[in-house]
């Protein structure tokens, strides 16, 4: 492959990137997770740094143009953007996100020797950077494809990045076998055996306390109606009706923004009080998603609008707490650089934005249990979920994936929730507007789920978990240190060889 003309290699790299999304849900062709990075590894062989940059960009563009195409639904159908402009915007996102692979490929060929032991660690650093640079867009990590496929045993030890590292390393090691470098069979066998062995360990265990009976309410409110003022009452009626048969269970959970208005608005306040009283009368706790207007510092003479949050609230019998979303969606929940961009887009100054919640928020509490909360795509951030999950019995996430229609986005999102359960050794309670609502056990397995785009109620009896996985304690630090060490050794070896 190193002798292919650059144009041909570029096309091959583009195809390799296009293939990787097929490894994830809903396609689940997980073997492609090994093949796709290995193809890029081979294509970069003996390339100049400049050529590697182009090949990396081609790979990243293909990956994001296909893997992130679910954005088209929200941009075109719900963002009222024409199809050509929406496609151009998707292409722009793919070009920008492709820079991660482009810069990584350039760095690889400029500073590191060609080896799976340098390529795989660099891949992990690139994935990790995607979780925080420019607020982060942590999607399409290779390790997600291996949830429930053996090698996810590394997840509770060192997180999804460790799974990605092992998958990429094994894939590149198989590529080396094509060059008759048979010694790479040894690390392949060891990595697979260790992954399977780790899956036999249960890092957490159920508490002795009784199981928690939970009902998830999936209202299936159409996205084009959800925020219409005239549809508010209908929305509240749907959730109240679906919950009638569920009061009496320990916990009733409504999805993100199930109450589509601030808590103090005339329609909302009496409704919330009514549901709270019903929950108290039936000895049920109630958790719901709601936009929360913080009036704590407001006075009659205040001239500054109070901050508002995308929030989860706990009420009812032994239900309490308020969680404010920490990671907001750029241009969806807030406008980045709004003040800076006013001179270009003056309308931005008139656009209200959610406020990000503070770090270190206390968990919700229901029936004597601590529920670590996450809203929507916050679960895509491994370290954020890990930090929120400290000292928790369960994890709960509320979402509204109706924005992405029938695309792969909602099912990719669900796959990430599975990985967070595996990493933390906790059951995840996932309530969504249009699906998939689900109960996911401490091993990342979907125990029960709803169909998409159906009004549904999902019931389950869940055990509270106790104990701590290594990932809960150490986070991403071990795999990042190992990756940095391998790259430093590679850099030293290359410099010494060049002398």
TrEMBL record:
It comes from the Bacteria. This is Apolipoprotein N-acyltransferase. It is found in: Cell membrane. It is a multi-pass membrane protein. One of its GO terms (molecular function) is N-acyltransferase activity. It comes from Aquirhabdus parva. It holds the Pfam family LNT_N. Catalyzes the phospholipid dependent N-acylation of the N-terminal cysteine of apolipoprotein, the last step in lipoprotein maturation. The chain crosses the membrane at residues 27-45, 52-73, 85-108, 120-147, 153-175, 182-203, 471-493. HAMAP family: Lnt. GO terms for biological process: lipoprotein biosynthetic process. Keywords: Acyltransferase, Cell membrane, Lipoprotein, Membrane, Transferase, Transmembrane, Transmembrane helix. The keyword Repeat does not apply.
């Amino acid at each position: 492959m190193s002798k292919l003309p650059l144009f041909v290699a570029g096309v091959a790299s583009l195809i390799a990137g296009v293939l990787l999304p097929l490894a994830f849900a809903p396609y689940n062709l997980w073997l492609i997770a090994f093949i796709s990075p290995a193809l890029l590894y081979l294509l970069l062989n003996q390339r100049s740094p400049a050529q590697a940059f182009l090949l990396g960009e081609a790979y990243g563009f293909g990956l994001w143009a296909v893997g992130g195409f679910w954005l088209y639904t929200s941009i075109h159908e719900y963002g009222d953007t024409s199809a050509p402009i929406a496609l151009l915007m998707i292409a722009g996102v793919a070009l920008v996100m492709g820079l991660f692979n482009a810069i990584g490929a350039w760095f690889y060929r400029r500073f590191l020797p060609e080896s799976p032991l340098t390529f795989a660690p660099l891949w992990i650093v690139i994935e990790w950077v995607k979780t925080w640079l420019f607020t982060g867009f942590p999607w399409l990590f290779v390790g997600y494809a291996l949830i429930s496929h053996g090698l996810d045993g590394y997840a509770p030890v060192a997180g999804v990045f460790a799974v990605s590292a092992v998958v990429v390393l094994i894939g590149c090691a198989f590529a080396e076998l094509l060059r008759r470098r048979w010694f790479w069979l040894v690390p392949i066998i060891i990595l697979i055996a260790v992954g399977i062995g780790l899956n036999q360990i249960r890092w957490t265990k159920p508490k002795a306390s009784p199981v928690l009976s939970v009902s998830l309410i999936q209202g299936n409110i159409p996205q084009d109606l959800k925020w219409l003022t005239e549809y508010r009452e209908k929305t509240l009626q749907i959730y109240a009706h679906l919950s009638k048969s569920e009061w009496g269970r320990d916990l009733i959970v409504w999805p993100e923004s199930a109450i589509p208005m601030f808590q103090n608005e005339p329609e909302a306040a009496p409704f919330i009080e009514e549901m709270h009283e019903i929950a108290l009368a039936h000895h049920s706790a109630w958790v719901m998603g709601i936009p929360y207007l913080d009036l704590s510092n407001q006075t009659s003479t205040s001239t500054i609008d109070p901050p508002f949050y995308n929030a989860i609230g706990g009420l009812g019998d032994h239900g309490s707490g308020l969680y404010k979303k920490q990671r907001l969606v750029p241009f969806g929940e807030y406008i980045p650089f709004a003040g800076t961009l006013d001179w270009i887009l003056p309308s931005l100054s008139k656009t209200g934005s959610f406020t990000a919640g503070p770090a270190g928020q206390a968990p919700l509490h229901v029936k004597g249990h601590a529920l670590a909360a996450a809203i929507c795509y916050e679960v895509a951030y491994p370290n954020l979920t890990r930090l929120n999950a400290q000292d928790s019995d369960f994890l709960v996430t509320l979402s509204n994936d109706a924005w992405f229609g029938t695309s792969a986005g909602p099912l990719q999102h669900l796959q990430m929730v599975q990985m967070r359960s595996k990493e933390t050794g906790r059951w995840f309670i996932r309530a969504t507007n249009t699906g998939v609502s689900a109960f996911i056990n401490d091993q990342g397995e979907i125990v029960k789920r709803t169909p998409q785009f159906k009004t549904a109620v999902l019931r389950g009896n869940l055990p509270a978990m106790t104990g701590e996985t290594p990932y809960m304690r150490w986070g991403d630090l071990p795999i990042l240190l190992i990756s940095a060490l391998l790259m430093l050794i590679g850099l030293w070896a290359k410099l010494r060889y060049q002398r």
